[in-house]
Amino acid sequence: MKIAIGADHGGYNLKNKLVEFLQDRGYLIADLGTDSPKRCDYPLIGYQLARSVANGEFTRGILICKTGIGFSMVANKVPGVRAALCLTNLQARMSREHNNANVLCLAGSLLSFQKASQIVQVWLKTDFAGGRHARRVRQISNIENKVRNVKCTTQKSKF
Asked: Is the pLDDT assigned to residue 11 strictly greater than 60?
């Protein structure tokens, strides 16, 4: 499995540990940055990773910032990406089984390496359940396609 991984300064240390952890387990890892703990802007890193997952260059992606929130917002802007912020093994499993998440977002300041590595293992080993969940994932894709084709207009609020 080819996995892209990226982080900003808030996830830099955890990213480096996870890269080694995953390579030791035979995963093909592409480290998309950042390359230092120096403060940096996360949106471009998140966008590059999400775009590379959406276009099939990588099977899955992992993004790490301080809380995971910023990266999940950025990644979910890219059509074809279903990014999930996971702080527990249950969230990791359900994001894969029910939502077919293809990008995992982690909180570098809230998760120890031990907990993060457990979450990553669960997320990578869990298959999409399909069935009724496939219908729901298609609905997400349909919404995504409609939003791309809708022109925004300003309407006066009734409130």
From this structure: yes
Which candidate in 98, 105, 133, 152 is catalytic?
98
Among this protein's residues, is 65 annotated catalytic? yes
Q: Which of 9, 65, 86, 133 is catalytic?
A: 65
The enclosing domain of 31 has a CATH number of 3.40.1400.10
From the list 114, 107, 112, the residue with the least C-alpha distance to 63 is 107
Q: Is 98 a catalytic residue?
A: yes
Q: Is 84 strand, coil or helix?
A: strand
| Residue 78 covered by a domain | yes
**pLDDT tens by residue, 83-137:** 999 999 999 999 999 999 999 999 999 999 999 999 999 999 999 999 999 999 9
Q: How many structural domains comprise the chain?
A: 1
